[in-house]
Amino acid sequence: MPRRSAAAVADTRGEVLDVAVRRASIDGLDGLTIGRLADEVSMSKSGLHGMFGSKQELQAAAFERGVQDFTREVWEPVSGRDPGLRRLLALIDRWIAYHRRRTLPGGCLVTTATIEFDARPGPLRDAVTVARRRMHAALAADVRTAVEAGEVPAGTDPDDAAFTLYALASAASQAIQLGERGAAARARRCMRAALGV
């Protein structure tokens, strides 16, 4: 049997990770196993093991892919705008739209992984912590710029506002998943209120 090209292997790995991210959004990263995923993508366990090495490496790769997908859909489309309130408002709209589309069947993977690993030391907890810190830092930086420009009320604490925005986005993901009527609109209003606009 001829060997597959590196590009073909990368494509297959990407397709497997797409399925892994969707599955992890429902079952959690801990519920993601090589055996279960092999069945779902119609591959052998040994083939998947060769791709990822271990369950832990599969989980880490799925989480990283989930963060990349979220970044591509929510953050990157607004990243070229000038920092400050207008970019924050555009980001809020994209973030809520991401949840409303139910891009992942189980909701936000970062929210799921945070709940799953917040009290469990190890590489996955570390990865979740890094992702949350990056998001918080990006939000706080834009809030700080908006405060300095007089676009949001003076005295608004950038870190408090970033924390609130992140918490509200997580709550929106959960409420939308539970089918709570008006959750997206409520989240958008609350996030804007957190910025004093």
Task: Walk me through the structure.
- The chain has 197 residues and is mainly alpha-helical.
- The protein has a domain at 60-194: Tetracycline Repressor, domain 2 (Orthogonal Bundle).
- It is 72% helix and 0% strand.
- The chain has 9 helices and no strands.
- Helix 1 packs across helix 4 and helix 6 (109-117) crosses helix 7 (123-148).
- It starts with 5 loop residues before the first helix and ends with a helix.
Number of helices: 9
CATH architecture of the domain at 60-194: Orthogonal Bundle
State the name of the first-level CATH class of the domain at 60-194. Answer: Mainly Alpha
Total number of strands = 0
- The secondary-structure class comes to mainly alpha
Question: Strand content of the residues, in percent?
Answer: under 5%
The main β sheet shows up as: none
Parts with pLDDT < 50 across at least 5 consecutive residues: none
What's the overall average pLDDT, rounded? 92
Calculate Rg over CA atoms. 19 Å
SSE pattern, N- to C-terminal: HHHHHHHHH
CATH topology of the domain at 60-194: Tetracycline Repressor, domain 2
Helix content: over 70%
CATH homologous superfamily of the domain at 60-194 - what is it? Answer: Tetracycline Repressor, domain 2
Q: Distance between the terminal alpha carbons, to the nearest Å?
A: 63 Å
User: Judging from the principal axes of the Cα atoms, what is the shape?
Assistant: elongated
